[in-house]
Structure formats: C-alpha cells, structure tokens
Amino acid sequence: MLKKNLIRILSIVLLITILLSIQRLVVPKYMDDIVEGSLIETYYGEEKDHDVVFIGDCEVYENFSPITLWEDFGIKSFIRGSAQQLIWQSYYLMEETLKYEKPEVIVFNVLSMKYNEPQNEAYNRMTLDGMKLSMSKIKSIQASMTDDEKIIDYIFPILRFHSRWSKLEAQDFKYYFNKEKIFHNGYYMRVDTKPVESFPRKKPLADYRLGENAYHYLEKMTELAKENDIELVLIKAPTIYPVWYDEWDIQIENYAAENDLMYLNFLDLTEEANIDFRKHTYDGGLHLNLQGAENLSKYFGKILADTYDLTDHRSNNNTAEIWDEKSDFYYSMKEAQYFDLNKYGYLKNFGAKKPTNN
Amino acid sequence: MLFTSYSFLLFVITVFISYYLTPKKYQWILLLCASYLFYGLVSIDYLGYIIVTTVSTYFISLKIHKINENKKSYLIDHKDFSRKERKNYKKKIKKQTKSYLTFGILLNFGLLGATKYTNFIIGNINSIITTLGTNGTLSFIDIAMPMGISFYTFKTMSYLLDIYREKHDAEENLFKLALFVSFFPQLVQGPISRYNDLSKSLFEGHKYNYATVRHGIQRIVWGFFKKVVIADRILVAVKAMIVTPDDYKGFYVLLVMLFYTYQLYADFTGGIDITIGIGETLGIKMAENFKRPYLSRSIKEFWRRWHITMGTWFKDYVFYPVSVSPWMLNISKKSRKKFGKAIGKRVPVYISTLIVWFATGLWHGAHWNFIVWGLMNGIVIIISFEFEPSYKWFHSKFDVKNKLSFKVFQIIRTILLMSAIRLFDVYQNVPLTFKMFGTIFTEFNFNIFYDGSLLQLGLTIGDYLILLIGLIVLYSISIYQETGSFRVYLNSRPQQVRYAVYSLVIVFIIVFGAYGVGFDSTQFIYNQF
Questions:
Q1: Least CA distance to B494: which residue of chain A?
Q2: Is the ipTM of this complex over 0.85?
Q3: What is the pTM for the complete model shown?
C-alpha cells in the first residue's frame, strides 16, 4: 500500500513538473520583440527597500530614470510599470508591493483614469502574467478580464498558450531558464530621437467625466496609501500622445485637492523640467528618450526629495555598491545603444524597427 | 455550459464530491437538484418545457398503469369470463389506455414539434406560396428549441409507451421520474436511456468505489481526447472548406467528406464517453451508444453500431408498430397479390424502413438536408438488401469473406458511403450538396494534396501530425475493443505503466488540444438535435 501511494504521489509530482516545464516553454518570453511584457516580473528579484515606487503605464516606465534619481538625490526607486496598465491593475500592484515593502512615496500616473472598463487581453497579459500568484493577482485578473477571458487561463497560462507548441522560436529555448537583464529598476531605456512633428487634434468628447470604476480604484489607492502612511503622488507624464484633456485634468486636480494629494501635470511643466519635444522623445511625442527621462527625473527628484524629506542613501556604502552596479549596467547599455545608433542609424539590437525613409 | 468548459468540469467535480458526502438514501435527490441546476444554468427560460414533459408524463403514466392494474385484478376476480368476454374487456381497457397514451404523445411531441419544426413548416409553406405566385407569406415565429428536448422527449415517450405495453410499472415518485428525465449528463446529447435500464442504478445509492471511479475518469479523459484533440482540430479545416464552397470543389469535397466523418465521430463519441464516464464515477450505468461504427463492413452493421439508443428507439417504437399496423398489413396483403410472394413480402419492410429513416432525419433537424440524409440511408439499406442475393452468389464463387484485405475493403467502402451521405450535414442545402458531391468527379484538382493548399485550411503540418497520431490511437483502441475492454487491459498493467499512460494522455490533451484562443471550440454537434 505504501509503495502504491508513493508511486501515486511521485506520478502526480512528475506530471505537474512536466506540465510546469512545458508551461515555461510555451509562455511568451517578451525578450526580443515586445520587451515591455517582461517588465513586471523584474521587481521580484530586487532588494525591496525603495523610497519611491512608481506605478502606471508606459508613461512611467519610459519617462523616469531611477538611476538619475539615485545619482542626483540618493533616492532608491523602482518603476512597477507596464504597457497600458489599467488603474485596477495599478491598485493591485500597489497592494502587492505593500506586502513586500513600505516605500515613502508611491507615484501614480493618471493617464489610465481614462479607462473605465477592461480593454484587451494582450495588454492584460503584459501586466498580469509577470505577477507572482497571490490574492492581489487574482483580484487584478478578475477586474481586468474582458468577456471572452477566463481566470483559469491566467492562473495556468499553459491553458492559454499551449497552442504555441507549433510556433516556438529560438528565444523560447534561449530564455527558458534565465532572462537577460534589459531594464533599469523598471525603466525602459531608449536613447534615439524622433521629434514631435505634429500635435494631436483634441477630438471633442460626448462626455468628459472620468469613469466611476476608475474613480473607485483611485479612491482605493488613496485609502491604501493613507492606511500605510505612504504619500501618494499623482502625476501626468509630459507626453503629447495620447491626448490628455483639460477637462480630465481639472477633475484630477479637484480630486487631489479634496484628498490632500500632490498632483503634477508635467505637460504644464515642460520648460521647468527642460523637456524639448524636438529632442527628448524617441517616438514623436509618445514617450521620452533617455535624455528626456533624465531631465524629468532631475526635476521630479528634487520635488520629491524636498517635499517628502527623503533620505539620501548615497553615503551608505552597501546601498551605494548595489546602485553602482546598476549604474554600470545603465551606462553600458547607454553606450551600446549609441553604438547601434551610430552604426546602423537605429537601435538594431534593442528591438527598434528600422526607420523608413519617407 | 459546454461539456469541455472549465465551468462544467467544476460543476461535475462539485456534484461528485457532494454525491459521496450525501447519505446513499438521498443521493438521487442531490442528482435531481444538480440536474435542474445544470438545466437552469444553461437555459432557465426553457425549464418550463422539461417540467411540463415530466409532470404530464408522470400523471399519464400513473393513470395508464392504474387502469392496467385494475384490469389485472378485474380479470383475476372474473376468472369465469369466457375468452370472448376477456377479449372484449381487454379491448375496452386498451382503448382507454390508448386515449391517455395518445394525449401524452400528442402533448409532448407537440411541444417538440412546436419548438423544433414550426419555422421549418412555415418556411416550406412560404416556398409553396412563392412558387404558386400567390401574394403574402407567413411570418416566422420567434421560438427557440430548448436544450436537449429531442433527447428527453424520446426518453419520456419510450417510458410512456413501455408502460402502455405493460413492460414495467409506472414510477410513483414524481421527483424520481423528474431525475430520469433530466439527469444532467444525458441532457446534452443522450444516450436515450430506457427507464428499465437506467432507473435502478440512478435511484439506488452508491458507496465510493475506487475502481468504478477510476473507470469513469478514464472514460471521461478518453472523451476529452477525442473531442479536444481530434474533433475540434478537424473542425477548423472543415469550416474553412464549407464557408465558401465554390472555392473548395473537387478533391476538397472528398476531404470535407472524410474530415467531417471523423470530426462528427470524435465529437459525438467523445461527448458520449464523457457522459457515460460521469455516470460511472457516480456508480450509474448507462446504455452504450457506439460500438466502433467505423469498423463496420456494411451500412446495416454501421447503424447497429452508431447511435445505438436512437436506432433501437426507432426500431422499437416506429419500425415495429408501423410494420404490424393494420394498414401496413393491408399493403402487405395487396402487394403479395400484385407482385408475388417474394417482392410482396419486402414492400411493407421497405415502406417501414423509409418511414423510419424519414423520421430519423427529421429528428436530427428541421431541415431538408437531414430529411434527405435520412432517406438516403434508408435507400442505401434497401439497395443493399436487394443486392443480397448477388453478394451471396459472389461469396459462393470467391472465398474472400474472411480475408483481411476484403474486410478492410468493406470497412473502407462503408466509411466512404457513410461519409458521402454525411455531406448533407455539411452543406447549406440539398441542391448544393449534390452539386458539390458532383465536383469530385468533374474537377480533378489532385494538386491540392501536394502544393501546400492543405496548409491554407487553418491547420499547420504539426496539426496534421497530431491528427494523424490521434486517429491512429483512436483506431488502435477501437480494434482492441473489438475483442476486449482496453480499460480492463490498462488496469491490469503495473501501476507505473498505468500512471505513465495517464500522464501522457493528460499532457497530450492539455498541450495538443484544439481549445482556447485560435480555436473555435464549439458545442457538441449533437447538442443541436
């Protein structure tokens, strides 16, 4: 009987191991193409004692440089950003983060307030698949799913991605065990430049009111921050696209004032932050390039350090050692990107597409 | 709630656990609640239909049974009755019970007919009106067919007819009858169980038995394999070829024939395996519905192996009653007189056969395609019957009957014949089906087999490979089952071997199953009938 049970248990363990191994193989690696998909998971390998944690969509992970915040102000920061991160996803990421650490400040980019309902699976995946299994993840999945999606497909991604068995690529095997480091505390570096060529037309909307569901999660974030004695800072990154309406801005301003929160709309502060859209964006105004991100970080870093009296950790040798290593990687990538730019005219080895000559 | 959906799996697991936690005496009540919950979750709007069917069947069956019981005691009390008196009395009673039976049949088939065939009839009347050039057409009514109505109506009607024929007693507990009618695994696509076969194991309680549960789970997994790995994968290619038929003529039609044959087989038998497997995990035994039909050597044999419960239903409740009905006996008499004994004997059999196959086609759907499909089956059976003397002559001259190559030839011939007839299931209407079938002989686009056209049907080389492996496994197990149970064989193997097989099948289903995004995992085909 004992032998029978032992075989039974071993078989179940073996079956689960096989399925997990296959799951690891078939889930997208997000390493050679849509690298943003692997941003969220990078947090778990970090020391979790940050002063500032950014949460939000691409307007945080492409516009702020934690290395600059460290080098100029001694602020330890991390960006928990992901592509089109919806506000409920931000809330649950915040909830999860607070299980690991209690930062002094949490910075939330408010662009996602414009979404009141789940959007699409591809973007959901880029936030949710990188999260470790937890109640926060499950609640985030439930809040994010579109009608056709199923929670079990998120908990066991093999059920969603099993059909990739016939489309496996070299990167699926290459990154099976380890993924290369490509981000800088959640920052996605791009040194190239593509100036803003036109400004978007602000198409009139039938209703400018931000959605109830979005407000509900903003209120939850505010409450969670208060409960944990954390400063919640609302920002709107200085990007030209997508459009940010003045009517939305007024609503956020009012909300911040009512809840005693700091709100900075960097679109109104581009001069102070030294952002020049002819030089400081790599995609015509959607995201800042490295120079733009560094400039913005210098400006914002000073506000954070002064307003919240954040400790300058640069004199702490152990911390400095860790961050020096991060800086080295940062500068080596910066150099490599400039090398690509000079040699090929675009960031060939960093997932950029060859510019077309118009 | 699809059989292959996560919600159904969760539902079954919950029922399974609750079932064995419930005292044996009350297990059937749990099943009744689960069945109604299942039906309600799938289509709460149609709960009324199944309740009407159940309640009407209950009261009518009790009434018929009571009359029959009274008849028995009356005859015991009147032993002194002459033969003639007894006969007259029985006739009188039969008339009474018949009127109740007729009412029950009209009511329940009326419900089935109203929901399933009204718009079909209206459509045909409109076609006639248009053809005659008369103004005005009838409007279609907004009515949907309740899930499983064809199956549960057939179950209840066989129950009623069996009571009328005094084959068994009427169920006195309304709720037990309700469970027989609504037992959830059978609601979707049968099998069409008979009360006598199912009631005992359905109502009596069961103690958890590892061997039975294991047996059931093995069958469920096998059903999933057939449905998810084979049927839903072929579906992709079949759909691609029939949406715009004009682009897929000639040998594509041959492909549609064969692909659809195996899609339907894997789909339907997969669903039945899941149904019977669920029953087995609960200790409930259901009638088998298939016996490896694609190993049949003739169309007659095929129909003894395919959808057995439906076939026997039509045989018992349509074929035999029609064959011995007074008007058929009259036809028999007249045809013997006119055509002689040999032919005259066959005429009523052939008429009954055609009636049965017309009804079978109609049961499958309110569409001329199904009716023609049914009649084609009947015609082929009649033709093969007519050819029987030739077959006998052939076999007397050539000793090939027991040769493997001849058996294989017969099997392939049956598959091709059934596949060709099955085309009526696939294309939109009867003329289109004939037209598409004709292109096999007029458009010789053999190049599609080697110029990469097959890879434009939504399946990759990998998919074809998985299909091939799936079909090889399917046939291997079918061949084994001709002489024994594969599950019994598997269970006699060492534990390590068994577990290795389970793991392999589970991994195969999860990884190579055609489900989720990119695959349109549909309902089981037989859901719609």
A1: A4
A2: no
A3: 0.84
